[in-house]
Amino acid sequence: MRQASAVPFTVFVATGLLGLCFAWAAYAGGHFVLGGWIAAAALALAWVLAAAIKIASQWERAVVLRLGRFRALRGPGLFLIVPIVDSVPYWLDLRVMTTTFKAERTLTKDTVPVDVDAVLFWRVVDAERAALEVEDYQTAVAWAAQTALRDVIGKTELADMLEGREKISRELGRIIDERARPWGVDVISVELKDVLIPSGLEDAMSMQAQAERERQARIILGDSERQVAAKFQEAARTYADDPTAFHLRAMNMLYEGLKQNSTIVIVPSTAVETMNLGGLAGVTALGLETARSTPKPQGRAGAEPKRGIRPAA
User: Fold this and answer.
1) Domain count, the chain
2) Residue segments in the chain with a per-residue pLDDT below the cut of 70
3) Which of 56, 76, 92 is the last residue of a domain?
4) What is the pLDDT of residue 307?
5) Which of 71, 92, 113 is the C-terminal boundary of a domain?
6) Host domain of residue 187
7) Are 22 and 37 a contacting pair, CB within 8 Å?
8) Tens-digit pLDDT profile for residues 1-50
9) Three-state SS at 196
């Protein structure tokens, strides 16, 4: 809302008080009729000056009409008009304006009801046309934006609306700009704030997205297993061509198992013969040696720690 300037009121008060002072001086000198005329003239002059003085802010333009016909645009700053003859019906704001608008329960191209909230950024570039070509340019811009939004929604599918908000915003801004350009209004941009869909459809889309993610996860897992299998095949070909490497790998696996578990491991004789470790007795002795070399937690004070199981002679 525009705030009135205090300058006209100040001029009115100052002029009226000055005239009343002259009227009082005439009245004190015995000129009663003259004092009354001076007081009336001072008040009339104060009213004329207060009505003639207008001040427009830096971002404002005033539309001046003389006897109903357009005369000029005034502002910013101080300007004068002729009281009664001239009038200022419009004070236009040239700053960037924001208008929020929405489309409720509007069907998309694939017959899905949606609620869309958007905001429009615009400004007046031709104050004369904005004042003379349309009754209320702000209301006209708001209705043009809402109808354009409904038209765009009706021509767009739901998936495109959810994924291509930027494209829809540009298309919407172009349509609104074409409609508002004759009114002296320039559309800067349009932003979609929110797109609301029915809760049932939202749940179905969430399930669909979850299923798609699970499918992708399974595909990635299968591809990983295929790559691991290929590496195993490559390793098997390497071990097949180099038995020494295979024996070293087997002994390393046995050593790691004994080191971590610290217990006796009974290995099938076929595996022992493959690793050339000298039979089951050698494996057992190796396990006992590993168990003895690994420190064990102490029991109660004075009690002997438990012994490992010794193999029979």
Assistant:
1) 4
2) 1, 201-202, 204, 257-313
3) 92
4) 43
5) 92
6) 97-197
7) no
8) 677 778 888 989 999 899 889 888 888 877 788 888 888 999 999 999 99
9) strand
